[in-house]
Design brief:
The protein is built from 12 helices and no strands. By secondary structure, the chain is mainly alpha-helical. Helix 1 (5-17) packs parallel to helix 11, helix 2 crosses helix 12 (255-270) and helix 7 (116-136) packs parallel to helix 9 (169-179).
Length: 272
């Protein structure tokens, strides 16, 4: 059992911090410092991301199917171009902008991930964003049904810069949506609909490292003991985190996350 603890802990961290606005990259960096957890094997990292992406697909399954059908129907008639049509194009626009910003930042991300003070600075930035949202946005404000491709592209800017360690993707995108006048439910949904292609793309890029580099030999895949249980923990904790976050966003409760990120950021800086 003791040999499985690192795999289970990484699964729990991935499942909870991937969705809650507290930055998964920041928490993984802190876990390595505090508990001497080594980097997960690439294959296990890919599987954990797959587990949390699967949790997103399960949680938003009906929304995704409904919006996809509405988006496709919009190609057949202009009269059918409603919310699903606008949201579909918003997700595509946001994904394109995210890629244009996030991919060139990869060398910076790799370098910053090795510097705890940089991760701490990202967490403090996340705390400031969430605290600002708590001051400027009350529960029930914003207008549902106001999503558009332009707003999707602007939220994509926030998602692109959220690749920086310590900056929460979910926090940055939801706050951006609220600032653009979206209702809390719509900002929440758009944030995680946009996360599916972003996480899928990042996972596929990571998975390329598992492919053989030469001919005549296969890639060596290393998985830690307890990796199946770790994936199950990531999936289950991901579903719980999404349900919790939806309720807290609807209630406008950003401050607990802001305080937590501030404390984690200060800890990361002073642990260097």
């Amino acid at each position: 059992m003791e040999a499985r603890l690192p795999a289970l802990l990484l699964g729990l961290l991935q499942g909870t911090t991937e969705f809650l606005p507290v930055s998964s990259s920041g928490h993984l960096a802190l876990a390595k410092l505090l508990f001497s957890i080594e980097d997960a094997p690439l294959a296990y990292d890919v599987l954990l991301h797959f587990a949390t992406m699967l949790a997103t697909l399960v949680y938003f399954g009906r929304d995704i199917l409904s919006l996809l059908m509405e988006w496709l129907a919009g190609f057949t008639s202009a009269d059918l171009r409603g919310e699903g049509w606008r949201t579909g194009w918003a997700v595509l626009a946001g994904t394109a902008v995210t890629a244009m910003i996030g991919l060139p930042l990869k060398p910076v991300v790799v370098m910053a991930a090795e510097m705890p003070w940089a991760v701490g600075a990202g967490l403090l930035l996340t705390a400031a964003l969430l605290w600002g949202a708590s001051l400027s946005h009350r529960a029930g404000e914003g207008r549902e049904g106001s999503v558009s491709p332009l707003k999707g592209a602007l939220v994509g800017i926030a998602q692109g810069f959220a690749v920086l360690p310590g900056v929460s993707r979910s926090g940055a995108t939801m706050v951006a949506g609220l600032k653009l006048g979206m209702g809390s439910g719509e900002a929440f949904r758009l944030s995680f609909l946009m996360s599916v292609p972003a996480v899928l793309g990042a996972t596929l890029l990571e998975a390329r490292g598992l492919l053989p580099l030469g001919t005549g030999g296969g890639a060596v895949v290393t998985l830690p003991e307890g990796w199946v249980a770790g994936m199950m923990v990531a999936f289950a904790s991901g579903l719980c985190s999404l349900a919790l976050l939806r309720r807290m966003v609807a209630a406008g409760r950003w401050r607990p996350f802001a305080v937590y990120c501030a404390l984690a950021g200060i800890a990361a800086i002073f642990l260097t």
